[in-house]
Amino acid sequence: AEVRAGLNMRNVAVSGDGRWVMAANYLPHNVVLFDAELNLVKHIVAAPAGGGATSRVSAVYDATPRGSFVVALKDVAELWEIPWDGREVKRSRLDEPLDDFFFDQPYRHALGATRERADGSAGAQVVDLDARRKVADLPIAGMPHLGSGITFAWNGRTVLASPNLKGGAIDVIDLQSWQPVKTIATPGPGFFMRSHEKTPYAWTDSMMSPTAKDTLTIIDKRTLQPVATVREPGRTLAHIEFTRDGRYALASLWEDDGALIVYDAATFQEVKRLPMRRPVGKYNVWNKISRSEGTSH
Description:
about 0% helix, four-stranded antiparallel beta sheet
């Protein structure tokens, strides 16, 4: 199998030096470490400190600047950091488990969301990976999808923008104070958001909405205002991604007679349509391994 350094796919991560691969499992409850030739090196049971019931593993990501993998447990309130060679597990003990997360640009903090609670609510929190503890709650309503959030510069600060699986809005949070900057209304709840450092625009879908799943909203990162939409009336338009140079935005027309649609990122006009059957996720490997600010990492 060919692997690419630093590739993050939530359930499989490859170390930034290309020497290690870690897989996260629901069943059995463990993470498994392989070398670059996919020879088994180690498996680690997803058990809490001190023992107890084991957990499904909900996500693993490579943290190249830290030389480690970071692992979220779905049923145990711990976030793990494991050096690439698997020699130890460093645990951050939390109040609630994290379902998914991503890193701030310095890779000091993991920003994660809990899965849905019994009352239908969800939560988001910030974990300091150096201090090994939660340092803030993120004031985001509904059910944030932080695993597809982005970060970018705005008015001299770095902000997080995250879609919301249950609310028609993009939440923008200051990554220094961890306080809200703005809530940007969208036509409906969305799943995926992307941008690129070479474009002033961020694109997000509303694919979780029964009435607006056909709409992509384009937001100006300078003003935090929606400036345009593109639509495929009555269909599902979702999961935006950018090319390496930021010139084109690619969207999935998620239908049996669907397509991969290429848009000009500056004019928002369609450039090309490649017919496909129900295309969904697509990830630009270069944008991931170069830690582009327009992608989650």
